[in-house]
Amino acid sequence: MITLIIFLFILSILIVVHEFGHFAIAKRIGVKVEKFSLGFGPLVLSKQKNDTQYCINAIPLGGYVKLAGDNLEEYKGKPNEYLAKTPGQRTIIILFGPLLNYILGFLCFWLILFVGYPTLTTKVGGLIDGFGAKDAGMQVGDKITAVDGKKVDYWEDMQKIIQNKKTATEVHLSFLRSNQEHTIDIKIKEKQLEDPLGQRRNVGLIGITPADEIVKVKHGFFQAFLLGINKTWNLTIMTYKAVWRMLTGKLALRESVTGPLGIFYITSKAASLGIIAILHLIAVLSVSLAIFNLLPLPVLDGGHILLLAIEKVRGKYLSLKTERIITQIGLTLIISLAVIVTYNDLLRFFGDKISKVFK
């Protein structure tokens, strides 16, 4: 039950922030907002304030902002209607939804880096047979303090240095054992691993696994700000690379895209790890939602922006017939994608349980 509440809370935040972006800039530009809706389906709550009806619906898996005169069937030529505005102004209205999601993601990363997040220390928790660390005499409980003379405090930093030395023959480690410092040279074994984008690359390994020793890492206000920008940018680049690899068939859709069912499963895991894990999930989902919405597909914000660019070049609106066809194609694509993603989520996260039921 708690997981469900957190899941709905996260979805609601993402949706409200996105739709508020459209809402706020539309009002600013002078477009009448008729409805601000959270969710779909049967109406649960409704409140009229000024010209806008604020609604909460029974199915909290989306939301929308209804702008006056936002289609040719309803457009009456009034100055406060959506279609009365220039293509540039309408592009800004559309763009601000994803933009606020993107900003929300960055703010969450900034907050995490500022208040502190848990990370593994360099304490060795296990040794793998056939690799250099065990052969060189390292022991469980050793705490690595430097790699090739470079001080390290956290497992991730140490791991990056060692993996990048894949072409080297050995690495020089300093470590603490029973509060005494030791140094050792360890042979590196090169191995091919698959990264999150499905690309196989060679990395250097010495055959150690981390202990369960965790410390809290905090950064200063301005340093956290800069690191938050960097983290948001890196996630953006990685996401676009993943989209490109999916389009070119190099990355399976099943392993790289998740829907509400998968998000619910991930939320249950994040909830058990605490508020920082939930904030991180919100950050990743918010940035991903912004990027997904900017894809040039019908119905999505990116699709609307593409159509506005075409309108700008043509110098006139698309016909009502064309608008309807594009909307139908877009809805078909989104519904088909939702079905495929949900099916994949069932197999990926609940496949074992489903197979047991039918045994």
Protein architecture, described:
The protein has 2 domains: 2-116 and 254-357, no CATH class; 118-217, Pdz3 Domain (Roll), CATH 2.30.42. It contains 10 helices and 12 strands. The chain has helices at 2-29, 87-115, 132-136, 155-163, 221-247, 253-256, 260-273, 275-293, 301-314, 320-357, and strands at residues 33-49, 52-67, 117-120, 124-127, 143-147, 150-151, 170-177, 180-187, 189-194, 200-205, 208-210, 214-217. The strands form 5 sheets. It has a 4-stranded antiparallel sheet with strand order 6-5-7-8. A two-stranded antiparallel sheet has the order 1-2. The chain has a two-stranded antiparallel ribbon with strand order 3-12. The longest helix has 38 residues, at 320-357. It is elongated and about 80 Å long.
Beta-strand percent range: 15-25%
Strand segment tally:
12
Distance between the termini: 28 Å
> For the report, how would you describe the main beta sheet?
4 strands, antiparallel
Query: Helicity, in percent?
Result: 40-55%
How would you sum up the global shape? elongated
